[in-house]
Amino acid sequence: MAMAMGWFPTPFTRTTTSIINCTNHHPHHALDASYVKRAALLSDKSACFTSPHPNFGCVIATTGNVVGEGYLYAQGTTPAEVQAVEAAGEFCRGATAYVNMEPGDCHGDYTAVSAFIKAGITRVVIGIRHPLQHLRGKAIQSLRAEGLQVDVLGEDIRSISIEDALKSCLVVNAPLLYRSACRVPFSVLKYAMTLDGKIAATSGHASWISNKESRSRVFELRGRSDAVIVGGNTVRKDNPRLTPRHGGGHLPMRIVMSQTLDLPEVANLWDVREVPTIVATQRGARKSFQKFLASKGVEVVEFDILNPKDFVDYLYDRGYLSILWECGGTLSASAISAGVIHKVHAFVAPKIIGGKNAPSPVGELGMVEMTQALELIDLSYEQKAPSKPPHLQDVKFLSGQTNGSEHHNTPPTGTIGSDVLISGYLQPIPDLTPIIPSVDETSAIDPSISPYDAPIIFFYKTWDPYGSFSNFSPHPIRLPDENGDYVTWSSVEHYYQAHKFVGSSNPNALSYIEAIRSAKSPEEAARMGRKTQREHPDTVRADWESKKTEVMYKALKCKFSIYPHLNSMLLSTSGCILVEASPHDLFWGGGRDGEGLNYLGRLLMKLRSEFLGDDDTHKPEISARY
């Protein structure tokens, strides 16, 4: 991706300027930058297969040779740093570790930091500091306290040679940066249009504007997203599936935004056997149709007033990092006007269709002068050539420049009939140091918050301050099976999902249990368990509904008993109310407005009381900031 200087907001702009003006170029800076960039590229390897999670990559090198590397496969799996250390083995001693982002040990055990220290790593080069405030700078401080040399690009290493590596680190974790600084998911608008700016003919027919290669690129974009959004008109006219179609891996949530629920009863999106669907609508809209959707397994979420801003806030609460908007002009204009779109991918096909009433990709924005036009920054161009072009011919096109200059070159394919993908940001990647108000400031803003009320600690994703309370945290547990033989489970979620089928009389149950136990990540285990329960309800144990809280409590007790740092963290919350902040799981979570049963939070508080001997009067050592 071609990127221009000067588009970062302060304070990064000041850092970038100092890099350019720096005249003291250390001979190793270019090598350091190349390894950090390699770590950033490594971190992106899990895209399309797992989501959501921050992207971590690690490269260990000594005397100019790579001796070990790794990347985070999924939330709750082995850290990239640990993988790299294990791959390098004895070559770690005296070596340098390169990471695209500061290690983010959300679980209180500093696994990645400890791996570097124990392996004998003497120097760590970091691309960017961790964007989450409760983790930012902690790993750096810990490493330096142990005597390791830690260099951060743009801070300790200042040279024009690191520019490209820095940008790679920012781009690969742009979703996390947006989430941290702006408290919204990273939203990308995608559309395909003809040269005359039409996304369909006057009749509404749109299959296909772009070529097969462009559509394959769209599948990749979907696979990199946590959710894909369309409007009701798209469902009515196109009947999309919104699947990545890559033959496996991560399947994003499919979302329909419709105020009136004027939607067809027959639609591909109502088939949720493989991929779930959410329909967002306004409160009270077509209650009978809501019941129909619910009978199909479609999740319906009501809003007092359905608009893009409130909806992305809801998706933020669900823990989503990246959203792909594939909607029509009306909804895209509303999303842009609401300020929730951060990046645009526009596929331009070399076709002209005309039509006074043919739809365009973006509807009315209220602009009356060209000077009001929104300009994309950090532009890049890709050409999507057809597999079998009729003939070849040199074609000149504009490369990605943002300074007003026109630089012509020849694309690698050089073919007539190719689509061009134009990409750029509507909003720059945000500042790395978000300002989080203190408790006193929050109380001043909202007088309803009383310092005398029992504090509430919310937890949900593993990257949260209390992420260790999540079932997805990477803490293996070991418990006896029905025969008394001890079995190791990679996480509480693995154990819980598999035990939906333990004791089932169905002969296929054993294979489902083993498949879930072997899942690479808690996310995969959850997906497999839920899918099997939905598609094969006859394999679920008959007493599951009455036993599931007992199963969960048993797993939680094991987890918080065998890890001392987790036990301490739980006990430190004494006097606090624990709430699993899922806005959609009304059994285990607290719900959007506190309407959920919060059974996971309740079980953790029950466990805390058990550990304390029912003396739950200890003062918390860790204060909640929510």
UniProtKB/TrEMBL annotation:
Among NCBIfam families, the record links this protein to: eubact_ribD, ribD_Cterm, ribofla_fusion
Top enzyme category: oxidoreductase
Q: Which protein is depicted?
A: 5-amino-6-(5-phosphoribosylamino)uracil reductase
Task: Identify the residues that the record assigns to the CMP/dCMP-type deaminase domain, covering every copy.
Answer: 30-151
Q: Which GO terms describe its molecular function?
A: 5-amino-6-(5-phosphoribosylamino)uracil reductase activity; diaminohydroxyphosphoribosylaminopyrimidine deaminase activity; hydrolase activity, hydrolyzing N-glycosyl compounds; NADP binding
As its record notes, the protein acts as a catalyst of: 2,5-diamino-6-hydroxy-4-(5-phosphoribosylamino)-pyrimidine + H2O = 2,5,6-triamino-4-hydroxypyrimidine + D-ribose 5-phosphate; 5-amino-6-(5-phospho-D-ribosylamino)uracil + H2O = 5,6-diaminouracil + D-ribose 5-phosphate
- The scientific name of the source species is Ambrosia artemisiifolia (Common ragweed)
Write down the InterPro entries for this protein, in alphabetical order. Answer: CMP_dCMP_dom, Cytidine_deaminase-like, DHFR-like_dom_sf, Eubact_RibD, NADAR, RibD_C, RibDG_C, Riboflavin_Biosynth_HTPR
Q: State the UniProt keywords alphabetically.
A: Glycosidase, Hydrolase, Multifunctional enzyme, NADP, Oxidoreductase
Q: What's the Enzyme Commission number for this chain?
A: 1.1.1.193
Pathway connected to this protein = Cofactor biosynthesis; riboflavin biosynthesis; 5-amino-6-(D-ribitylamino)uracil from GTP: step 3/4
User: What domain of life does the UniProt record list for this protein's source?
Assistant: Eukaryota
Q: Which GO terms describe its biological process?
A: carbohydrate derivative metabolic process; riboflavin biosynthetic process
